[in-house]
Prior knowledge:
8% of the residues lie in helices and 60% in strands. The protein is mainly beta and 171 residues long.
Amino acid sequence: MIYYARMLDGERKVEIEKDGTTYTVTIDGKEYVADARMASGPTAMSIIVDNKCYETIVTSTGRKTLVSTGGEEFEIELADELERRGAASAAHHLDLDIEEIKAPMPGVVVSIEVEKGQEVDPGTPVVIVEAMKMQNEIATVVGGAVKEIKVSQGDIVDSQKTLVIIERKAA
Length: 171
């Protein structure tokens, strides 16, 4: 699985493959092999990398993970490719008068959650698209009035197909 880890010193591409307790972790193209096991308690882990043992405490709150080891703490925010693209899209939409809500991947429209003319707040789900046997709520970023609905229930949509257009609320 590929993730993007955001830390204080920037963002890194991280690929993780698991085989039992062995993890192959590639960070920005450099590969590490680690043996990781739960130690005492639900957050304590023992991790061996290059014959060095690290005792760590790993706690998660929402999307952020705090890793404590050797007297140091690291806060990491992980995002997969879909979440990363969504965040980039959100930043772009904040500067526009309209928001085009697009399908993040190919799928089937399961339901339309809004009606034309309806006022929606940021984060309101507008369409549910099923892809790879999972239902994904697609939500508005900026909020406003539903200007146009460009799909119907049952439609098959390609990635980046415009689903709904939201007219941003005047500031």
